[in-house]
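Figure 6 in text form: structure in, sequence out.
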């Protein structure tokens, strides 16, 4: 079987590793970058979708490691983007993934053939060589954090109007008057980082948001969240969510104390933000909270509460479109609504294609994408089969989400990590994957952890 994989980020390299485990070796990986890691490879060039220079992971090390390749003991609870890049590249090297990647190569077109195979056209960045090849199966791991979704408001802003996709480091904003739009993880990080050197930084929030500190009760917050999941097996989900919300408020205090709106929804009805610094910076007067924007006029931003303020730069942290530009829209288009995928991976209406990693967890993406990869690899060698009526199975999955959330573009692909992980594990043989994180041992290193020494 000749297999194409688009993307050598965390999901793509997990797919290749597990295909190799099942004896599938005719694999070609296409990646536009020059090294594995996807958007965890920091690049100051804003044309590349990458993390910020100061980014740290928002889920803890324990719940962010591949099952087959735990992070080393010397890694902190929340590793930096630099440590994550080394981790992914070590994983790819260790399992023989890296030699299969065609770097600096962009997939231009994927066309399904009547035979069920795929014709793929790609172009190399340096040589500009265009190749068209045919594959038996296509695995799409191009990510969903690269095409910015920009907000629209009445009027026109004459200053610098950018998306967080273009934000790489705070230095260019020194002495500027900055407004950040949004309250997600990127928005809070941008607000905190720019406030250190800006003339002033404000953050505009259109509603009340739950901002969860990275530590609760002295433990990483996702440790508590996963414990709450276990509790939810015996008590109503609403009770465990309410208890989690109480713990957050005991730690941070009420929203009104920071000039923030009180959320009108349960804590998981929107994607919670993991940040321990925003409240601190608001409390110290370094960041000011503003409501939603009413209109723009020159360099003045007018807010819905009747106030206005002047800014040099507005950074829109307003999410991304889900898009696959190499597909004709008549073949596949997941840019609107919930992608109809079984186990967030397999479509019913397009043959021989899978989308592992196309979900947004309340937790970390790649450990669950790794489990998807194991299921996919077993399917391709005849060890696992999806339901016969895949359309009905997809409809049931969409009708029974892990958690009920506000209907918005941000929440079309949400899963709850512990629930989703349990569903994926149920599709694999018992004990096929270890349920606990083992100490890191790399047999190719002279001693455990050498290859990942920071």
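Output sequence:
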């Amino acid at each position: 079987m000749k297999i194409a994989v688009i993307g050598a980020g965390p999901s793509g390299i997990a797919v290749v590793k597990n295909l190799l485990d099942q004896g599938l070796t005719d694999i070609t990986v296409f990646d536009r970058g020059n090294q594995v890691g996807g958007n965890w490879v920091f690049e100051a060039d804003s044309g590349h979708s990458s993390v910020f220079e100061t980014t740290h992971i928002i889920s803890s090390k324990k719940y962010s490691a591949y099952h087959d390749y735990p992070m080393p003991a010397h890694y902190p609870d929340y590793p930096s983007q630099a440590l994550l890049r080394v981790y992914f590249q070590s994983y790819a090297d260790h399992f023989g993934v890296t030699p299969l990647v065609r770097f600096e190569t962009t997939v231009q077109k994927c066309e399904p053939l009547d035979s069920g195979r795929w014709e793929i056209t790609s172009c190399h960045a340096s040589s500009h060589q265009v190749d068209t090849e045919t594959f038996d199966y296509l695995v799409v791991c191009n990510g969903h954090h690269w095409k910015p979704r920009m907000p629209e408001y009445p009027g026109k802003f004459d200053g610098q109007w950018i998306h967080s996709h273009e934000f790489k480091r705070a230095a260019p904003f020194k002495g500027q008057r900055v407004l950040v739009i949004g309250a997600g993880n990127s928005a809070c990080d941008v607000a905190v980082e720019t406030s250190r050197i800006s003339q002033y930084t404000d953050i505009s929030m259109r509603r009340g948001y739950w901002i969860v500190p990275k530590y609760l009760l002295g433990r990483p917050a996702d440790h508590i969240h996963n414990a709450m999941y276990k509790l939810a097996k015996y008590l109503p989900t609403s009770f465990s969510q309410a208890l989690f919300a109480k713990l957050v408020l005991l730690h941070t205090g009420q929203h009104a104390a920071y000039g923030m709106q009180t959320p009108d929804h349960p804590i998981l009805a929107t994607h919670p933000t993991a940040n321990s610094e925003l409240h601190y910076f608001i409390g110290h007067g370094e960041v000011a909270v503003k409501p939603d924007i009413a209109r723009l006029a020159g360099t003045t931003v007018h807010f819905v509460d009747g106030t206005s303020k002047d800014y040099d730069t507005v950074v829109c942290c307003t999410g991304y479109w889900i898009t696959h530009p190499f597909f004709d829209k008549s073949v596949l288009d997941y840019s609107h609504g919930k992608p109809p995928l079984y186990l967030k991976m397999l479509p019913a209406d397009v043959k021989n294609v899978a989308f592992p990693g196309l979900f947004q967890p309340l937790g970390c993406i790649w450990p669950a994408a790794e489990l998807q990869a194991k299921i996919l690899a077993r399917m391709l060698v005849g060890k696992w089969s999806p339901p016969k009526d895949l359309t009905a199975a997809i409809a049931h999955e969409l009708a029974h989400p892990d958690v009920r959330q506000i209907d918005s573009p941000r929440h079309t692909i949400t899963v709850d990590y512990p629930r989703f992980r349990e569903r994926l594990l149920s599709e694999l043989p018992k004990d096929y994957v270890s349920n606990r994180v083992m100490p890191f041992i790399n047999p190719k290193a002279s001693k455990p952890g050498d290859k990942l020494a920071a």
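Caption detail: Residues 237-252 form the longest helix (16 residues).
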